[in-house]
Design a protein that fits this description.
11 helices; 362 residues; 4-stranded antiparallel sheet; 5-stranded mixed sheet
């Protein structure tokens, strides 16, 4: 579990040479197959170093292999992201749930596209739990879930909510707020958050009639963020259960959104210019940038970055400086991703894209 801020921090590590090792390794679900893992890690690392012999420090490779041995047993069926640079004092292990494409990358910075893909597929979100007497608004992030608002508001601040039972029944009996007012108040809280820049997908859990009632009152902007609902008896829920029930709803929402954005670029509306494939997408990113960039999860494309004119290219003489200031980069898609994000654009990692990369130019 990792946050966007942590990914950015990892990406900001920069070594003087291409010696930072990033290793993504799928841990088998079957414990008996664990013994094959060191050999697989070694062969991924060997493939990455074949192109740049001498850059990887032997002690960094050993540190990566020790990290695999230390963490694999607790992460059966998951993917380990391991980032090592003795020179930078960097040794970070990030477990990713499920399977990600395996790779080892050597560069001046950690290779983080798979981490961004994970954040895209499990975004921070809001969960509303509602019945006719109560509404709770939960904020769910990679590493925590907490109650951020409740209706009716409580007089006294609530104690810690870890593993907490949503509400004791005597509180429910005391409540006199009318149901109509309750739904309006819950809708208003969501609206204020959305307008205040807190736009995040929303999941609503409760009895079907409560979900329908609240949905009907949501302003358009909030409704656009509605990811889906789940049926539950609010008084049986804990924070952990609410989070678990919202998880598949959010996963579906993320997949739908991914599909829609792929559609927007690969089958654009009339009059919308799009770039399909590496050459056209590079041209778009090098020119005015992209407001939407799609990258295939599986692809890694080595290339060059010109220090003088900032152009990204497939060959070292791909700009007007004829390679005089071009440095190899292990993955053009990673560079295009960060350039797009820092330019205010959106990047979508796609599990299977018909081309390696596509863009909607600014
Ligand atoms: Zn140049």
């Amino acid at each position: 579990m990792i946050t966007y801020g942590e990914v950015e921090k990892l990406r900001s590590c920069c070594a003087p040479d291409a010696s930072v090792l990033s290793l993504y390794l799928c841990v088998p679900s079957d414990q008996a197959e664990l013994r094959e893992l060191p050999a697989r890690a070694a062969s991924l690392i060997a493939a990455a170093t074949a192109d740049s012999p001498g850059e990887l420090q032997p002690e960094d490779e050993q540190a990566a292999c020790r990290a695999v041995a230390a963490h694999a047993r607790d992460r059966l069926g998951d993917t380990l992201g391991i980032f090592v640079s003795g020179r930078l004092g960097l040794l970070e292990v990030v477990p990713l749930p499920g399977k990600f494409p395996e790779r080892a990358v050597l560069g001046v910075r950690p290779h983080v596209r798979p981490l961004l893909a994970e954040l895209q597929r499990r975004p921070d979100h809001r969960v509303v739990i509602i019945d006719h007497q109560h509404a709770w608004l939960l904020a769910v992030t990679a590493d925590r879930v907490e109650v951020v608002a409740r209706v009716p508001a409580e007089d006294a601040p609530s104690p810690g909510f870890g593993g907490w039972y949503l509400e004791p029944s005597h509180i429910l009996q005391r409540v006199t707020a009318s149901a109509g007012h309750l739904y309006q108040e819950a809708a208003a809280i969501l609206d204020r958050q959305t307008v205040g820049g807190g736009a995040q997908p929303v999941v609503i859990g409760g009895y079907a009639d409560s979900i329908t009632h609240l949905l009907a009152l949501l302003p358009r902007a909030v409704r656009d963020e509605y990811a889906g609902g789940f049926a539950a008896d609010p008084h049986e829920l804990t924070l952990a259960k609410a989070r678990a029930l919202a998880e598949p709803v959010i996963a579906h929402w993320a997949q739908r959104r991914e599909d829609q954005l792929v559609q927007a670029v690969t089958a654009p509306a009339p009059g919308v210019a799009t770039a399909i494939g590496l050459d056209d997408s590079l041209s778009a990113v090098n020119a005015d940038g992209a407001d939407l960039l799609l990258v295939d999860d599986r692809a890694v494309i080595p290339g060059f970055h010109c220090e003088r004119c900032d152009v990204l290219s497939v060959s070292s003489d791909g700009c007007s400086d004829w390679g005089a200031a071009a440095w190899p980069v292990p993955d053009l898609l990673e560079e295009m991703t960060w350039r797009t994000l820092h330019g205010g654009g959106q990047v979508v990692s796609v599990r299977m894209l018909p081309c390696t990369v596509a863009a909607r130019p600014r």
